[in-house]
Structures are given as structure tokens and as C-alpha cells.
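Researcher: Here's the sequence for the chain we discussed earlier.
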Amino acid sequence: MRLVDHLDKGFSLGADAPCLVCDGETWSYAEVRGLSFRISAALAGSGVVPGDKVAILSANDPLAFSCVFGISRAGAVWCPVNPRNEAAENRELLDLFECSVLIFTSAYAPLVCEIRDALPRLTTLVCLDAPVEGALRWDEFLARGEGTVVDRDADDDLAMIVGTGGTTGRPKGVMLTGANLEAMTALTLMSYPFSPRPVYLALAPLTHAAGVLCFPVLCHGGSLVVMRTPEVAAFLENVEQHRVTHTFLPPTLIYMVLDHPGLAGADLSSLQCFWYGAAPMSATRLTEALTRIGPVMAQLFGQTEAPMMISTMAPADHFHADGSVAHERLSSAGRPSPLVTVSIMGEPGTLLPTGERGEIVVRGSLVMRGYYRDEEATKEASAHGWHHTGDIGYLDEDGFLFIVDRAKDMVITGGFNVYSTEVEQALMAHPAVADCAVLGLPDEKWGERLTAVLQLKAGHKADLGEVKEFVKARLGSVKTPKQVEVWPDLPRSKVGKVLKTEIRASLLA
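Model: Thanks. This is the structure I predict for it:
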């Protein structure tokens, strides 16, 4: 199944139904589908053949997202480029992916001008919304395909290549096939509630999880409401105005929603499924969300290499049969999804029994083809016939998957293994803590000194000694941070994850 086939499925359910909505404008399925044919023909007129790589550099934008379908219809490979990356990183990714076309918005023209001379394979530049020297205007680009119809299959089912950073700092390109994304769509549709014609609100970047979650919505003929900027007040207004049924946010943004004064008066009754993922969520704040947002919270766990649906937890799974909150499950990542096999690996190649902790490994049609032009990394990630996630976790007796840490984030202090996620969950239960990071720092006595950096809720103060006692009462002395600091803000990645590498570097400086 090609990416554009999701759009065509929605078109078959109603050509005049709304497909894309943004800033008061609406594009029907017929309009978006027609545009996809024009883009496909323009790419062919620019020399693009099946298997060629076409990159998109844009913030959330309906026209830029429409280009995804034109790329797919041309048989080419979509390469989403994160607009928040530094210029050097994007240059390296575009070179690695061997992109021949770059479609971008004028906001990123300075970045494009900075890197394009170092990318000889990049033969066609297209700016969507303004004249830029050395780039085709949007109308000039479309004119290259006038009078032709191009609707091709990909040569080998490669649908997209997504950049991801590695532990070495060198970027890698994750190859995702049409079959991978079809599996993701199928798992989404079978794991979560969907009514006819869902309405999906995309606030998070369409270059990441928010983008691929659009495809199952399209299969139901649903509409996609695109937010150009991540504003919490506007998010709440959009849910109410458009009667949004589905949305996705990382935990950091959900915390902002919970802390926003407009939440109490917002009408969120249309929501069926509010996905959260991309980072661990505080069980305490999740409990709050189930009350204040509603019984619609839905977890997903995946990676770029196995997109979104390694394990799932539907809204109903957050509750017992009697309607009470299933607190013991809230710190889990749900159950392995139906088409994915999940195991826990200890010593290389050895699978562990229920309840024991080790690396989470997965198999199934969700798992990537491999890393683009990186056989060594591909071999390492797929050792012993399993995809290695790099996450440490365990499966409980009821089949729920618990992720206790990234393998590289485990702290060994005084000879004991301490998983930072467990300590972070305890800290997040403190009424003054908005977010936190736990890591190990070198220590002559302990080997590693368990260290916590806190970001407090607005208007709150915290006695650090009392915070330590709060954790000690819950986890014991071994898992209590020896060092606690308060920072006004925690450094974050482009998708809102706390950057422990930057915190560690600052603490060691």
C-alpha cells in the first residue's frame, strides 16, 4: 500500500468531504487528490523517477503535507526534514539520503541557501510560498507537469526515509516501506476507537508522529485540522470548534494543557482518543488527565524504526471493569499490539521469562527494512533475529509492557542498578514538580551519583531536602537522588524530549 493510497481510500468515501483544514480554509478530498496528481506530474517533469528521494522542509503546513501524496504518487521516497535541526545536521541528512529535490517554505530559505552549495545531488529546489533565488516558484514547479498524468508504483516499496540520531552522534536514515506503514495503520485502526469521519488535530510536528497518525484517519475519510504553531489556547479552541475526535501530543505538551487556565472551560466532549507517547508520562499527571480531559487518554509506544505501534493502550485499558482507574497500569506502555511480537532479552540472544528486566526486542511487519546505506548499524540493530529497541523493560503477568529506562540511562550507584524512569515517576508525583530529569554523575564514593534536575510548576517552590524525603518514602534510600537542583527550564529536543546529554554536560562543566 502506497502512502497516497490512504488518501485515495478517503476520496472513495466522499470526494467532497473535508480533507485538510487550516486557518479557516478547507480543502476537500477531491482538491487534495487533484493536487497530488499535479505534484506527481511536476516531479516527473523535473526528472524524478521511482525510487528517487524528495525532501520536504516545512513547519506544519497543509500544502507541504499535500506534497507527501504527490511524492508517493510519483513512486518517489518521502524524506521529512526536521525544520528545527541545525543547518549542518540537515545538510548531512540530505546528503546521506541522496535527495534530488527539496521542497521548502520561505521561512527556511536562509537554511537552504546555507547548505545547498554543499549538496551537488540536489538538482531541484522548490519554494512553496515566496520567490527565492535559485529555487522554482510553486507555480513554475507545477507548470513542469502540465498536461501529463503520473501515477506510479515505487520500485521496491520504500515509502520514506526518516532521520534519527544515534548514540555516536552520527545521523542514520530509517527506511520505512509501504508495508511497514500499512501495518502501522492497521494496528492503529484495530487498537483504538474510531467513528465514521474522524477529525484529527495535528499540533505536534507532521514530520514526526503527528504525521503518520494522519494515515489511518484518511482511511476513514476523516479530516485533518493542521495547526501551524503549537499554542495551547488555540489547541483547546480547535478541539471545541472542529469537534475533534483524535489528537496526539507528547507528555510535555499535555502537562502544558493541564496547567492552562482555559482547560476548565473548554468543551472536549468530542474527543474519542487523545494519544500520548514519544516519552514517558508521569502516572500522577496521567491520572489528572483522565479526570480533567476525560476517559479518552490512549498510549502508544514505538520508535522511528518500528513506528508508533509496538504496544498500545486504548482509553478503556486505563480503567478496571467497574470504572475505577487502573493505577497499576498507568506507568506501563500497554500491551504488545496484535501484529507485533515483543520479548525481553538478557544475555545476547537469550530471552527472559515474565517479570525479568532486560532489553525490549520486537519482531513483525512493523519493523523497518534497515538503516539507509549503513549495513553495520542495521546488523547491530537486528542481531539474533530481533529488532533491538535500546529500551530496558519487562512484561508482567497480564501481558503489560513496562519500560523502565533507556539502556544508556541506567545509573549504577553503590553497586545497585537504578532506572532513572522509576525515580522520575516518583519525583513527578510531588505537587510542586512540573518536569524532571534523573541521571548519574561520576562520584568517587558511589561510582555514579544519582542526580535530579527539577522544573517546578509556575508559582511553586520546593524544599530540596523535603523532595529527597518524598522520594525516599516511596523508593528507599538507594533510589533517592544524592543531588537535587532546580532549573527554570529543562533543555528539550525538537519533539519535546528532555535532553539529558545537555543537562549532564552543564552539570559537569
